[in-house]
Design a protein that fits this description.
8-stranded mixed beta sheet, 32% strand
Length: 174
């Protein structure tokens, strides 16, 4: 079964972690990349939406979570450059004055160039490199929550077993 292990990609950052990272690099450009390329320098943050969700997963387990959606319009506009990270944070904080934004909520990035349909992405932890703050986006995959929970439990069990083994015995766990 093919599935994206989001933990390996360091995805699903929270709003609070994004803003905390930006606070340390407010004056550098924020460059968001998706589909293997950076957004155009004229990109706009068109919407910041907060959602509270309640659902049943495919195993009939109740689920509840909060999520923040950052919608971006990926366009060229005149001679604009990528916006400073501080301006991006100011936009989000302005929304927060009117809409309660949960800092622990996971982020979903919605991106469109105005021609292609909007796509959903997970965001990575911002990284400072080449004089800019970079956030890499990856497609937001579907998942089976009961399976994800089971895999997480199995992973914890394996980790606990491996920690209990001597170095000579520990050949399977690295």
């Amino acid at each position: 079964m093919n599935a994206i292990d989001k933990s390996l990609l360091e995805l699903d950052i929270s709003l609070g972690r994004l803003l905390d990272t930006i606070d340390g690099a407010r004056d550098v450009p924020l460059i968001i990349s998706y589909d293997g390329r950076p957004v155009k320098p004229g990109y706009h943050v068109t919407d910041v939406k907060a959602g509270q969700f309640a659902a049943l997963d495919c195993g009939a387990n109740p689920e509840a979570w909060s999520e923040i959606f950052l919608q971006q319009w990926d366009i060229e506009e005149g001679d604009r450059t990528h916006m400073p990270a501080g301006k991006f944070a100011a936009i989000i904080r302005k929304v927060s004055e009117h809409v309660k934004l949960d800092g622990s909520a996971k982020l979903t990035f919605e991106v469109s160039d105005g021609i292609r349909p909007m796509q959903l992405y997970c965001g990575s932890m911002p990284r400072l490199r080449d004089g800019a703050l970079h956030v890499e986006l990856a497609p937001h995959p579907a998942s089976c929550k009961p399976r994800d929970r089971w895999l997480e439990q199995e992973n914890r069990k394996t980790t606990q077993v491996c920690r209990g083994l001597s170095a000579a015995e520990n050949t399977c766990c690295g």
